[in-house]
Amino acid sequence: MSNPTVLILMGSDSDLTTMEETARVLTEFGVPYEMHVSSAHRSPAKTSKLTREAEGRGIQVIIAAAGMAAHLAGVVAAETPLPVIAVPMPGGALNGVDALYAMVQMPGGMPVATMAIGKAGAKNAGLLAVQMLSLSCPELRGKFVAYKTRMAEEVEEKDRALQA
Ligand code: RP5
After folding, report:
1. Residue 99 forms beta bridges with which residues?
2. Cβ distance 68 to 39 under 8 Å?
């Protein structure tokens, strides 16, 4: 996509099925993004280059997804002033709890905004990025408010059906 404002990094192509949920949300809101497989461990130089160059290319939010010993969000946060959203991937012996603990336990001074494990987290990463971008984009804010209104209406419809 041209002029991406969100950069999505994932540690492996095995994370792609989950992270497609983030891409779906950003597409729904019309937010241009760029997605790369880039590992903190297997391709540290590539991860560093993508991260360091991001702000200069107009990226405003970075989303980092990884599983197991999930260092990706932390190493990205170390190399950029941009906000970093972390998504723990399921899989491995501990099915994402390992990644969740790694991401949520960043030491003081180095924040990453950690989402839930798996698809719910991937979806919320997209939505949180939209909220961050909304702070300087009234049109996007309007879309997000409409999204929340729709969600409340859907709950109402389900409750009405239950009461009928
Ligand atoms: C992490 O290890 C990746 O983010 C992935 O979730 C996990 C397993 O990677 P693969 O062995 O499937 O490439 O680095």
Report:
1. none
2. no
Could you report the predicted ipTM of this complex, rounded to two decimals? 0.96
Q: Is 96 in the pocket of ligand 1 (CB under 6 A)?
A: no
Task: Specify if 158 maps to a domain.
Answer: no
Provide the 10 A C-beta neighbour count for residue 67: 27
Handedness of CA 116, 119, 124, 130 (dihedral sign): positive
pLDDT in tens, 19-44: 999 999 999 999 999 999 999 999 99
Q: Tens digit of pLDDT for each residue in 4-16? A: 999 999 999 999 9
Which residue has its alpha carbon closest to ligand 1 atom 6? 67
Rounded CA-CA distance 158/14 in Å is 35
Number of domains in the chain: 1
User: Residue 149 domain-assigned?
Assistant: no
Residue type present at position 129: A
How far apart are the CA of 162 and the centre of ligand 1, in A? 42
